[in-house]
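re: ur question from earlier - yeah i can do the single chain one, its not a big deal. heres the input i used so u can compare w yours
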Amino acid sequence: MPTQSTINPARLAVFRQLFQAVAEEMGEALMRTGFSPNIKERRDFSCAVFDARGAMLAQAEHLPVHLGSMPMSVRAALAAHRLGPGDMVMLNDPYEGGTHLPDVTVVAPVFAAGNEQEQPAFYVANRAHHADVGGIAPGSLSLSSELFQEGIILPPVRVVRSGELDADVLGIFLRNVRTPDERRGDLLAQIAANRTAIVRLEQYLARYGLPELERYGAALQDYAERVIRSLLAELPDGELRAVDYLDDDGLGTADVRIALSLRIEGESAT
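and the output i got, formated as tokens:
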């Protein structure tokens, strides 16, 4: 890991903006090519860049609810598949880092030129809310008592292989939704957004080289950790508690109580 003395602060700021710009450009591509109002108008999506380990480097300011779960979906995709050039994995399983089933995540690797047989240099991913993914009610937001009622459950599955769309996987997905043409369009928009990011990161790799990008990517992660630790250090020692409630189903049968507890002891927090 780089030490603070070897990192140029001005250059660190430049690389922060470079990685952030990739995520933001992904979002623009997704919004402009998406088919549904969910994506084109509501902008219910998120885009992010990850390092070779699947740890987040940058995420655009699209939808905050996706901030914590996107890295878990990427890790699930990497655990399930060894991705090669041109491959992409899609998933929506809440037990694999997803949120609710309409949120479909697409993950893709980025390789440095000449190292296509090695470990990817980066990964990119985007998550978009599809207007319907099957289930017992249109829109896939039903009053369900089990996950299977909400729609099709996608474990990490390779939807693009060596740059070619897997027609069998796509066919299974589209056969289980009410609006297949729109779903196909939105999924292709997600694939296009990842390809936009891949092109941009390949340009960065050609210009700056992998070692420099890795060094400043790790420095950004270290900086983020120091910022969070400094904020936690300002909190007094002790235990903080809070209680909140989710909306019920109107029938009083699905009221959910959330209890949060945070213990502050010196520089550690649990």
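Residues 245 and 257 are 5 Å apart (CA to CA). not sure if urs matches, ping me
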